[in-house]
Amino acid sequence: xxxxxxxxxxxxxxxxxxxxxxxxxxxxxxxxxxxxxxxxxxxxxxxxxxxxxxxxxxxxxxxxxxxxxxxxxxxxxxxxxxxxxxxxxxxxxxxxxxxxxxxxxxxxxxxxxxxxxxxxxxxxxxxxxxxxxxxxxxxxxxxxxxxxxxxxxxxxxxxxxxxxxxxxxxxxxxxxxxxxxxxxxxxxxxxxxxxxxxxxxxxxxxxxxxxxxxxxxxxxxxxxxxxxxxxxxxxxxxxxxxxxxxxx
Length: 248
Prior knowledge:
Layout: H1 3-19, H2 33-56, H3 65-75, H4 79-90, H5 110-115, H6 126-144, H7 152-165, H8 167-179, H9 187-196, H10 200-203, H11 216-236
Helix pairs in contact: 1-2, 3-4, 3-6, 4-11, 6-7, 7-8, 7-11, 8-9
């Protein structure tokens, strides 16, 4: 159902609530002063609904679209991916604080803010929060040094795994994969070794520098859901950043 249909339906419900069904049945009766006032009120409500629709059309994914586009471009990120992360992290609620202390739209930890000289009390600001996420993603990719031949999906998935589970654990998994002659640039391979890091026989290895990891299931689910959401957003927006479909 389109936004226009939804808004029109709401207007009809409100009108019916205020004036009752008789209003729609007495079309043949002469207009009284009261009916003129009702007509004027309906016109005002229709204008208001049109204004609401116009405001809704200003964004495609969330009310942070413009901010996401601008900051993502400045930080060298894909705004649709950043939006997908924000959806999965906070459902676009800027005041969310997790039990672990992650803050805001992109669920930024205070230690990340500290790395970029941003005080904890400023992380909740949406613009600051989004910018920190962009900087963190760029830093992760730089540290990973993924092969230029790495596929876009593998690259994105491994970076997202770092964002969620920590770059240390992902680096351990990649190191283990390489030592066993497997591809450290394949997300499927890396995910398998992340699971293995819950096994003492693996995490006690000298190749493992960041210890035990028991969050592989959560990290895999996170990567899967963000990538799914990202693909969905890509279907909504064309190369020029214009809407090609309605958010459902």
